[in-house]
Amino acid sequence: MTTFPAIARSAQASAPAWNGTQQIGIVFVQFDARSGRAGSPTPVIYAGVSTTTGPAILRSTDGGRAWQPLPGQPTGLRPTRMAQGSDGRLYIAYADLPGPDRMGNGALWRFDIKQARWQDISPVPQSSDTQGDGFGWGAVAVEAGNPDVVMASTFNRFGPHDDIFRSTDGGRSWTPVIAGARFDHGNAPWTAHASPHWMADVQIDPFDPRRVLFVTGYGLWASRDVRAADHGQPVQWWFQNDGLEETVPLDLVSPGQGAHLLSALGDIDGFRHDDLTVSPLQYAGPRLTNSESIDAAAQSPSHVVRSGTVRHRLHDEVRAAWSNDGGRTWQAFVSEPPDGEGAGRIRLGSDGGRVLWHTLRGSHWYTDDHGRHWQAVRGLPNTAVVVADTRSPAHWYGYDAASGALLRSDDGGASFVADRVRLAPAPVLTAELRADPQQGGLVYVGAGPQGLLRWRAGDLQRVAGVDAVHSLGVGKGAPGRDVASVFVAGTVECVHGLFRSDDGGARWLRIDDAAHQFGQIQRVTGDPRLHGRVYFATGGRGIVYGDPQ
User: H or E element: which one contains 14?
Assistant: First the structure.
């Protein structure tokens, strides 16, 4: 049997000129389904290499031991996908760049193996892109039982929009199936605000050719009546993302009342998660492209703030918003800090009165009137992160990983002074602070490779056994305990995983296992109302939550 690594080595060895110029490598491998049978026992294999400097489609007729370029193939574009019909013809989608954000040219080609003839069968020409800078082709598929039925998707086509085209005559004529289609948003209302894009794969069900699936930048759509397009009727699509989240969470907060969770997400702003078993409500009010930071007041959890970015900022929109009803409705801040550029880290005092915004440029500002007036925070290094005390609005805490300084504020975050205890300097991006929701004045410091520390004014204790902290959260303590439960994504006693401690770090319970690693956990937080519940953000696989068994 030929393995994928062997194919990769053989293909690369056959084309040494690509070495040093190829940053993407092999993008697909296609086995010829007609080969490898009686009378033709040796598998025929095709491989596509993402290059514009030489032949990109290779063929092996000896099971992957040797490779040759397909004769006469197009040059100057990169292959993205290949599909083969039952009659042997090959269909290849091409683009000038690998994407996802940049594709400015492309084509769809058909190769007739028997005649060794190439033909450009692109459904729409590049000149049809009236609003963008050109587009590529992301995917192509062929119906298993009818080699004349072909489907292909545009990629990065802004004018008028991305679409999927369908042909029933082998690519001589095409019909769009997204334009005029009906999309059922019932199980995910937020998708009504999104348009299909980044369609890098389209698949026709080999057992039911009426069923087609395609991926987009935010999930998976499926149809059970794609043949309606053949009769001039609109195609119906359903969102199929249950258990297959593709959202990118950037920050999370679990408030003390109202919604279980409030999220800050890339591309689609964020959600108020009232019921964790159904699709949540997208934020109403000023919309951000990315919400990147969010916080709720510990003693007044109906007060929430968030900050982020706006992709097309036309009218100097303020890239932060506040809510006094737990995230149901939002209002934009009056202004950003003098050097504000959106995003950064935004934090809220325990009573919901004062907001501190750590800007992208590094400076710290505070406001008591939702941005009508800003004042510079005194005494905080640009690389410091801050957190508000959960009990007293007068007290705030800071940690500057670059210098190792631990800092305190007794005037509501207006100014900070260094505590007499400190840490060794560490990489700036590893710093996290979490204030204990059950004990005022107690702060947990996630110091990356320096582990976890418990800090009270003038007293710093390293938590034994925690080797490294990638993300840190706190939640409601165990019954009878006067300290919060602490959650750590990191390494405890040389084991990497997700852990919970109910006794301030004396003992740790691993709450994931080797089969459930969830990729990179970027944010973790407990629930201040439910002991043991944990929420965490993955690096592109949505938000996961768990409860003790």
Answer: helix 4-14
Q: Cis peptide leading into 100, omega within 30 of 0? A: yes
pLDDT in tens, 480-492: 999 999 999 999 9
Rg of the chain taking only CA atoms, in angstroms = 28
- pLDDT for the residue numbered 13: 41
d(CA 506, CA 492): 12
CA dihedral 223, 224, 230, 231 (to 10 degrees): -110
User: What's the confidence (pLDDT) of residue 127?
Assistant: 75
Question: Do the beta carbons of residue 349 and residue 413 sit within 8 Å?
Answer: yes
pLDDT score recorded for residue 53: 85
Low-confidence ranges of the chain (pLDDT < 50): 1-22
CA distances from 536 to 256, 456, 515 (A): 17, 26, 17
Contact 160, 195 (CB under 8 A): no
Contact criterion met (CB below 8 Å) for 45 and 66? no
Half-sphere exposure of 35 (CA within 13 A, CB side): 16
Instruction: Give the separation between CA 4 and CA 64, rounded to whole angstroms.
Output: 9
Q: Tokens 């056959």 belong to which residue?
A: 14
CA torsion, ordered 400, 403, 405, 407, to nearest 10 deg: -40
From residue 492, alpha-carbon distances to 48, 392, 452, 508 in Å are: 43, 32, 10, 8
Angle, CA of 277, 282 and 283, to the nearest 5°: 135
By the 8 A CB rule, do 96 and 103 touch?
yes
What one-letter code names the amino acid at 192?
A
For the stretch 421-434, pLDDT in tens is 999 988 766 789 99
Edge-to-edge order in the sheet of strand 466-475: 466-475, 485-492, 495-501, 509-510
Half-sphere exposure (Cβ direction) of 347: Cα atoms closer than 13 Å:
29
Say if residues 380 and 345 touch (Cβ distance below 8 Å): no
The Cα 317–Cα 268 span in angstroms is 17
Residue 357's H or E segment, with its range, is strand 355-358
* Residue 21: other Cβ atoms inside 10 A: 10
Q: pTM of the full predicted structure? A: 0.85
Determine the Cα–Cα distance for residues 242 and 234; give it in Å rounded to an integer: 25
Q: Is 467 helix (H, G, I), strand (E, B) or coil?
A: strand
Edge-to-edge strand list for the sheet holding 431-435: 431-435, 443-447, 452-456, 459-462
Cα–Cα distance, 370 to 139 (Å, whole number): 47
